[in-house]
Amino acid sequence: MHRHLPVLLTAATAVVAVGLAGCSHTEPKVPASATSSVVPPASTPVVVTAPPTAPLPVPEALTDVLNRLADPNIPGANKVGLVEGATPESAATFDKFINALRDNGYLPMTFGADNIAWSDKNPSNVMASIRVSTAQPNHAFTFPMEFTPFQGGWQLSRRTAEMLLALGNSPASTTPPVLTPPPPAPPPARCAAPAGRQLGGMRRRRVAPPPA
């Protein structure tokens, strides 16, 4: 939990340093006699938000959100609370998401969560490496997802939800291409026998001698 604090301090220091460097190029030069009588402004302290002191969620708390989101037996109206910023009008989008998963042969889907940690950008959120397995053979993948607290539980962040919706709309190549076999080769043409052989095979007729 405390390992993110030095990162935030370093980032804040870098921002302040860049801001001071930018100001040094734009401010006009003031004579030394004038600067000696000017009181320097008080420096503004840098406020760094520490990660929450609450324990990190267990993997099942995060995968349960995904399992319910990908469950075709749960209507879209009951999935509004699973995604950050979703409204009742989003129910139709969730139903289309499930239909796309079913049509592409992804269902059922299973999820696993690893490397759960507090988010560096939103300290109240958590990041996790989610393992996704689908019904497609050899079609499993892993990518980071973000979750935000909601009513004592967790819901999928809006940014991650858009990634999943894009996944559901991507077509899957489930049918292999059909190869049409070439037509059979015509039988070889039978060669006609030479004239000599035909005559040789015929019976010779006896020619009667002419009358005397």
From TrEMBL:
Q: Does the keyword Cell inner membrane apply?
A: no
Residue span of region Disordered: 170-212
* Keywords (A to Z) from UniProt: Signal
Q: Which residues cross the membrane?
A: none
Signal peptide positions (record): none
Source species of the chain: Mycobacterium numidiamassiliense
Domain spans labelled Low molecular weight antigen MTB12-like C-terminal: 55-171
Reading the lineage from the top rank, the first entry is Bacteria
Q: Where is the composition biased (Basic residues)?
A: 202-212
InterPro entries on file: Mtb12-like_C
Which protein, by its recorded name, is this?
Low molecular weight antigen MTB12-like C-terminal domain-containing protein
Entry's family note: Belongs to the MTB12 family.
Cite the PROSITE patterns for this sequence: PROKAR_LIPOPROTEIN
Compositional bias annotation for Pro residues: 178-189
